[in-house]
Design goal:
Elements: E1 4-10, E2 14-21, E3 26-33, E4 45-46, H1 48-66, E5 73-80, E6 86-89, E7 99-100, H2 108-116, H3 120-127, H4 136-145, H5 148-155, E8 159-162, H6 164-172, E9 179-180, H7 182-185, E10 191-192, E11 197-198, H8 200-206, E12 215-216, E13 220-226, E14 235-242, H9 243-250, E15 259-263, E16 267-274, E17 285-292, E18 295-304, H10 308-317, H11 326-332, E19 341-343, E20 361-363, H12 371-397, E21 403-407, H13 414-424, E22 427-431, H14 436-449, H15 455-461, E23 464-468, H16 474-490
Parallel strand pairs: 1-5, 5-14, 9-12, 15-21, 21-22
Antiparallel strand pairs: 1-2, 2-3, 4-7, 6-8, 10-11, 13-14, 15-16, 16-18, 17-18, 19-20, 22-23
Helix pairs in contact: 9-14, 10-12, 11-12, 12-13
């Protein structure tokens, strides 16, 4: 009877619900966008109530689409936009302020003051993070600083903090469970990733009362139950992970050295580093991937700011293509890049350069340069930046990896995937299900109730769509040599 898993994928722009069957096949997907508020420059907010309402609708729609009822659902898994911060009153159930979104920079000056006060090393040692407004800690501090009565309420134990996973579980369980998992906790700048506890020194630094914090539950295993209107049964909630970590799990990157790269507007690259946290020498983030059966798995995470965005620029800025997918045919219209290198520093350069003043360039233009060469060089630039991040991660972790699992909108581009494989000199593997984030949450939930026996069973369920094998030759070497030479001209590193 219980043949399905419901995955809640609470994203940055929409609330989504997906249903998977025992073979890991997606049988329904419903989603509702919600409002993005930009009250001031650099500020981004969501309404937590709207997130909850749209999420509920998406769940009900997904069940209707699949034509199943709640008693056919084995378990619920949740994955979420990370770091986004909600503070609510536990008595009224109402948020005291809008959710402050991960992109929000309002606490940047406060973060700078923490760095100036000498906290950077301690924060990195304990949390694996750099001091940044991105993470939840300074956002909680900001909310409580708005009004002295809020601080008093928090100290009195009337206010609760949660990332979106926590908020949704609290709503789903009608206020019974105030929990998160280590993958989400590790993005708050309040959680010690070595002791696996909320850290008193960090709480003091950010003036956050400990009684606001959720209980940290393993990423897989029964947490509580959910019951929505017109559901006939209570359904166990048994999986939680932040979106990037869920995608790593959904890509079956269970072994140290296995990496997934998501090709969207930017690239999000996460490498499993096994049971020990690895410290990065390049300001990449050390994070918890998941905790299952008492075992904590760590990861290292790096991102490229501009990836698919480069293709958007070719479309909207240069207008040499009219849709992103056209870039593949255009790049295939030429044999090679014609000697071009596209420096994709349209918004500075992240790891390993960390040069926020760098600007973009197309170098090597001659009378023979065609649009196709520019398209090709743009794809190579996306793959080269991912290569740089992956190589730095490998160095940090001291592990050599053998294959890369890919997802995200731009992974549909076969030429890009072949270029990536060539430049990494490694296999690139694309899964059949591109909804890897939701699938990861479903896998964690199903493992948590015994729907799937163990991780090995999941390895058999996961299906690949395509494999790209490296062809390295002189042309590949030349792309890399020109890139290094030209990058050296525009950055100081
Ligand atoms: P996000 O989640 O960041 O919005 P998506 O995963 O939806 O991103 O991917 C969209 C991005 O991928 C866009 O930047 C788009 O330009 C790029 N993209 C989509 N299709 C292709 C393609 N066939 N080749 C290259 N880039 C593509």
């Amino acid at each position: 009877m219980k043949s399905y898993i419901l995955a809640i994928d609470a994203g940055t722009t929409s609330s989504r619900a997906l249903i998977f069957d025992k073979n890991g096949v997606q049988i329904a997907l419903a989603q509702y966008e919600f409002t993005q508020y930009f009250p001031k420059e650099g500020w981004v907010e969501h309404d937590p109530i709207e997130i909850w309402e749209t999420q509920k609708k998406a769940i009900q729609d997904a069940l209707a689409q699949a034509n199943i009822s709640s008693d056919e659902i084995e378990a619920i898994g949740i994955t979420n936009q990370r770091e986004t911060t909600v503070v609510w009153n536990k008595n009224t159930g109402l948020p005291v302020y809008n959710a402050i979104v991960w992109q929000d920079r309002r606490t940047a000056a406060f973060c700078e003051s923490l760095v100036n006060a000498g906290y950077e090393q301690m924060v990195q040692d304990k949390t694996g993070l750099v001091v940044d407004s991105y993470f939840s800690g300074t956002k909680i501090n900001w909310i409580l600083e708005q009004n002295p009565s809020l601080k008093n309420e928090a100290v009195a134990g009337n206010l609760l903090f949660g990332t979106i996973d926590t908020w949704l579980i609290w709503k789903l369980s009608e206020g019974k469970h105030h929990v998160t998992d280590p993958s989400n906790a590790s993005r708050t700048m309040l959680f010690n990733i070595h002791t696996l506890e909320w850290d008193t020194e960090l709480l003091k630094m950010l003036d956050v009362p400990a009684n606001m914090l959720p209980k940290v539950h393993p990423s897989s295993g029964i947490i509580g139950t959910a019951k929505l209107d017109n559901w006939t049964t209570e359904v166990p909630i048994s999986g939680i992970a932040g979106d990037q970590q869920a995608a790593l799990f959904g890509q079956i990157c269970f072994q140290p050295g296995e990496v997934k790269n998501t090709y969207g507007t930017g690239c999000f690259c996460v490498m499993n580093t096994g049971e020990k946290p690895v410290k990065s020498n390049n300001k990449m983030l050390t994070t918890i991937a998941w905790q299952i059966n008492g075992k904590t798995t760590y990861a290292i995470e790096g991102s490229v700011f501009i990836a698919g965005a480069l293709i958007q620029w070719l479309r909207d800025g240069m207008q040499i293509i009219s849709s992103s997918s056209e870039v593949e045919a255009l790049a295939n219209s030429v044999e090679n890049n014609g000697g071009l290198t596209f420096i994709p520093a349209l918004a500075g350069l992240g790891a390993p350069y960390w040069d926020s003043n760098a600007t973009g360039a197309i170098m090597g233009i001659t009378r023979g340069t065609e649009k196709g060469h520019i398209a090709r060089a743009a794809l190579e630039a996306i793959a080269m930046r991912s290569r740089e991040i992956i190589f730095e991660m490998q160095k940090d972790a001291g592990i050599v990896f053998s294959s890369l699992r890919v997802d995200g909108g731009a992974c549909k581009n076969n030429l890009l995937m072949q270029i990536q494989s060539d430049l990494l000199n490694a296999e690139v593997i694309r899964p059949k299900t591109t909804e890897t984030t939701a699938l990861g949450a479903a896998f964690l939930a199903g493992l948590g109730t015994g729907f799937w026996k163990n991780q090995e069973e999941l390895m058999h369920i996961w299906e690949k769509d395509a494999e790209f094998h490296p062809i390295t030759n002189e042309a590949t070497e030349r792309i890399i040599a020109l890139w290094n030479e030209r990058m050296g001209k525009i950055t100081t590193k």
